[in-house]
Amino acid sequence: MSDLRITEAFLYMDYLCFRALCCKGPPPARPEYDLVCIGLTGSGKTSLLSKLCSESPNSVVSTTGFSIKAVPFQNAILNVKELGGADNIRKYWSRYYQGSQGVIFVLDSASSEDDLETARNELHSALQHPQLCTLPFLILANHQDKPAARSVQEVKKYFELEPLARGKRWILQPCSLDDMDALKDSFSQLINLLEEKDHEAVRM
Questions:
Q1: Which residues are annotated as a binding site for Mg(2+)?
Q2: Architecture of domain 30-201
Q3: Which of 17, 69, 93, 141 minimizes the number of CB atoms within 10 Å of its CB?
């Protein structure tokens, strides 16, 4: 091989290295989704979201009105609007539904029968609300680490999810602060549902 060919080969290799190092460009932006998070006071909404955001548990204060957190995942960012679950706040939930692309409903699986009945009524209302009924739902049966916790199957039966949510996109998952891997997996499933809905909208 001539000196000229050798020189050209080295120059081309240098060019390829330069492109690999300097011309990648910024990584593609992660999609963002606006979600609403609802559930009764004491269901653990704030603690779960704070843990996902790697916030100190000492700074967790129960939400009385509403708060917004950007929850980062590898393939998406979830902008979660958490609504307080007190009696005097729940009647205003629907005012904050507009613009939501998905719903997170957190229930205390170890709560009293009365609170569980109230949670069921609120979930039924959300599933049938005109602004939410077509959206993906992630339903979290929280506090699975407590002795009185009801299983996912018990919650599904008590909440009558099979007949009520038939034809809707919903996921029911157990969770607790002690099992973050399972919690993150639940949110990954929700992100998959959100992406599917996006793709369907593009095809229409």
A1: 46, 63
A2: 3-Layer(aba) Sandwich (3.40)
A3: 17
